[in-house]
């Protein structure tokens, strides 16, 4: 008797859906986002946290390549306009682009694992007044 008899495969393991494995690339997994948190109408804005201080609009657009990005805002320190605050906002043209952008949460940009989340609509209308 041989251990490898292919003629009667009585038991065959079901195919593995690799997208649900924890080792699957994050892009292959459905983002763990509660769709009810997504805005119902534009602007479709993502908050970007833990950004490298040398990040540029171009590097943000490159990070979200393939998505319909319409604007990037990178707030600067009022006392030192050369220095970024380390967070920003990316605005998308459609809800699907925002949803896909959220799946990039914790991905690396430069040497940082950045945070991508739904921006609060209230403070999204402009920066909060200092004071």
UniProtKB/TrEMBL annotation:
PANTHER family assigned to the protein according to its UniProt record, in alphabetical order = EUKARYOTIC TRANSLATION INITIATION FACTOR 4B, EUKARYOTIC TRANSLATION INITIATION FACTOR 4B/4H
Chain positions covered by the region annotation Disordered? 1-41
Q: Which PROSITE patterns does the annotation name?
A: RRM
**Do you know which Pfam families this protein is assigned to?**
RRM_1
- What does the function comment of this entry state? Required for the binding of mRNA to ribosomes. Functions in close association with EIF4-F and EIF4-A. Binds near the 5'-terminal cap of mRNA in presence of EIF-4F and ATP. Promotes the ATPase activity and the ATP-dependent RNA unwinding activity of both EIF4-A and EIF4-F.
GO function term, MF aspect, one: translation initiation factor activity
**Superkingdom of origin:** Eukaryota
Q: Which gene encodes it?
A: EIF4B
**What name appears for this protein in its UniProt entry?**
Eukaryotic translation initiation factor 4B
What are the entry keywords? Answer: Acetylation, Initiation factor, Isopeptide bond, Phosphoprotein, Protein biosynthesis, RNA-binding, Ubl conjugation
Provide the assembly information. Self-associates and interacts with EIF3 p170 subunit.
Which Gene Ontology terms of cellular component type are present?
A: cytosol
The family database entries (InterPro entries) matched by this protein are listed as: EIF-4B_RRM, Nucleotide-bd_a/b_plait_sf, RBD_domain_sf, RRM_dom
What SMART domains would the database entry show? RRM
**Where do Basic and acidic residues bias regions lie?**
1-11, 27-37
Which residue ranges run through the membrane? none
Residues in domain RRM?
44-121
Give the matching Gene3D superfamilies.
Answer: 3.30.70.330
